[in-house]
Amino acid sequence: MGDLRSLPVPDGLEGERLDAALARLFGFSRTRAAELIASGDVLVDGSTPAKSDRVRGGAWLDVTIPPPPAAPMPVAEPVPGMTILYEDDDIVVVNKPIGVAAHPSVGWTGPTVIGGLLGAGHRVSTSGAAERQGIVHRLDANTTGAMVVAKSERAYTALKRAFKERTVDKRYHALVQGHMDPLRGTVDAPIDRHPSGDGRWAVVAGGKDSITHYDTIEAFRAASLLDIKLETGRTHQIRVHMSALRHPCVGDLQYGADPTLAARLGVTRQWLHAVSLAFDHPATGEWVSFTTDYPADLAEALDRADDS
């Protein structure tokens, strides 16, 4: 059973296409709005409309929003290439390989960190949604590096708070196109879903506050290696902010990277690695820090950038 929303069309949307008006009223993508119209979940003054119909101010909308599909449960099976950097009774820190999501989600059928830990016999916290138990932060499926998972309930609570209060030191290295000017700086620009509804995120007025600090480690002919500290942890934050500066991560074709440069450096995903993670241990209060080496594909690309 869906969620029925009924309301008049605001006068300010007079003359808009119906799919565009729905997108603005409910925060959908245009694609999602069109799907609801096509499935008969939208009525205008009691009649079934077409997505291209123009709306009239004061017309009555009845929109049934289907419940979101349930996320799949994790499949407990070892994940090749995922190594344990540290483990005790409260936390486990992994070096996440390429092509592994943090937890199951709708539309993702590949391996997950949670499934890999369970498959290797590790216990994780039971706090959080069933499909993402123990997950206190995430890395994109194709972003590699250090990631902590809570094993105890106290660790889950403490780490969730630490990430929310921004007391965790998250460091990334990114190989981006071109040369930064200035060589070091801060990007403070809000992020929300891209208006296209295609799964990307973007700098959007009114989005969630997002702050990225960067410093150039080394400049090559066509690219620069950056040390990046995240103050916030939005989805795709580094990728979005670098793209907004017109210096996308090398290989990040989703966010405007040059495919020719990616091919020359042998990169088939964004050059982005979570190089270190540091925080107050949830049990002892001691400041602990974990670092990771570049995986083979990123190290090879960096060598090629240095030679070119």
From TrEMBL:
Q: Point out the coiled-coil segments of this chain.
A: none
Q: Does the keyword Lyase apply?
A: no
- What EC number(s) is this enzyme filed under? 5.4.99.-
Where are the catalytic residues? D140
Recorded GO MF terms: RNA binding; rRNA pseudouridine synthase activity
What range(s) does the Pseudouridine synthase RsuA/RluA-like domain occupy? 90-244
Superkingdom to which the source organism belongs? Bacteria
Family statement drawn from the similarity comment of this UniProt entry: Belongs to the pseudouridine synthase RluA family.
Name of the protein described by the UniProt record: Pseudouridine synthase
**Organism per entry:** Acrocarpospora pleiomorpha
The organism's taxonomic lineage, starting at the top: Bacteria, Bacillati, Actinomycetota, Actinomycetes, Streptosporangiales
